[in-house]
Amino acid sequence: MNNKSISKLLSFILRHSPDTIQLTLDAHGWADVNTLLQQCRANGHHFTMEELETVVAENDKQRFSFNENKTMIRANQGHSLEVSLNLPPATPPEFLYHGTVARFMEQIRKTGLQKMNRQHVHLTDDRATAEKVGSRRGVPHILTIRSGDMHRSGMLFYLSDNGVWLTDEVPVKYIQ
Fold it and tell me: What is the pTM of this model?
C-alpha cells in the first residue's frame, strides 16, 4: 500500500468505523498499534510499522498521533464516533476560516455551520488551508468566522493536536 492509501484507510478506521476490521478504540479514540496492524493484515491491508510511522510523521494535515512509546495511535480530530479527545477549552484568534462549496451555502445561510455527522465543526486560522479544504469538492467558498465574538459570548473552542480549531456550531450571526 502507498502512503496515501494507508492514510485514507486509517482515517476511515480511526475516525469512523473501527469495527470494519474488528478494532476497538478506547474512550479517547486510541487504538493499540499492534492490534491495528494485525487486524489490517487480517482484512487484506498490508503495511508495516515503518510505513505507519512514515504516514503519521509525514501526513500533510497531521491527522494522526502516536502516544509517547508508539504503542497507541489515534486520529487527531474528525471523528463521527463518540470519543473524548481530552482537549482543554482554548481562546481562538479573532477570526477563523471555513472552506466549503456553493451547494452548501444556502443551508449555511439558514442554520450556520453545523457539525453534521462529526463531533465538531472544523475551522482553521489559515485562509489557504480553508481554500484547500473547500476545493476538494469544487470551487471553494471561504467563510470568515468571528470566533473572537463567539468566544466572548460563551461558546467553547478547542485546538486539536494538529492545529484544527473545533467548536460545536457556528451560528449564522458569526459568519461573514
Answer: 0.78
CA distance 130 to 140: 8
The residues near 134 (Cβ < 8 Å, ≥ 6 apart) are 99, 100, 101, 140, 141, 142
Nearest residue to 113 via CA among 143, 157, 79? 143
Thinking of the domain 3-75, which architecture would CATH place it in? Orthogonal Bundle (1.10)
For cell 476511515, what's the residue? 12
Write down the pLDDT at residue 82: 86
CATH 3.40.109.10 holds for 96-174: no
What stretch(es) of the chain map to CATH 1.10.10.970?
Answer: 3-75
Residue 120 and residue 17: Cα distance in Å, rounded?
17
- Look at residues 43, 44, 54, 55 and name the one whose alpha carbon lies nearest to residue 10: 55
Residue 86 vs residue 167, higher pLDDT = 167
30, 74 Cβ separation under 8 angstroms: yes
